[in-house]
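Duplicate of #3305? Posting structure anyway:
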């Protein structure tokens, strides 16, 4: 729930600042503009967005949340009472089909 709220906050802030950076009458880049120039322009816009204090804080919180989720993930224990030896996956339909053939 917390990460959903953070994602929503980042999305809302980004969309509002994008509307500020790109005026309503702005045209999309013409095909004559090179791909490299378009990438540079996008990088400049991204840097401008990331320098806004509210967005920088939201990105920092998102990074911390991702680190907490990654550290909270399950890690294999060496003293586990059960050890997975083999993984064999079959769908239910394959299982039922094999059962019908064995009858």
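Output from current build:
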């Amino acid at each position: 729930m917390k990460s959903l709220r953070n994602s929503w906050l980042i999305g809302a802030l980004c969309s509002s600042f994008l509307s500020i950076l790109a005026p309503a009458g702005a045209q999309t880049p013409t095909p004559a503009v090179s791909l490299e120039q378009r990438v540079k322009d996008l990088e400049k816009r991204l840097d401008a967005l990331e320098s806004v204090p509210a967005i920088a804080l939201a990105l920092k919180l998102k990074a911390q949340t991702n680190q907490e989720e990654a550290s909270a993930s399950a890690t294999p224990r060496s003293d586990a009472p059960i050890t997975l030896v083999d993984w064999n996956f079959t769908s239910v339909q394959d299982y039922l089909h094999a059962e019908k053939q064995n009858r």
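Confirmed duplicate; merging threads. The mean pLDDT is 75. The helical segments are 2-21, 35-50, 53-71, 92-102.
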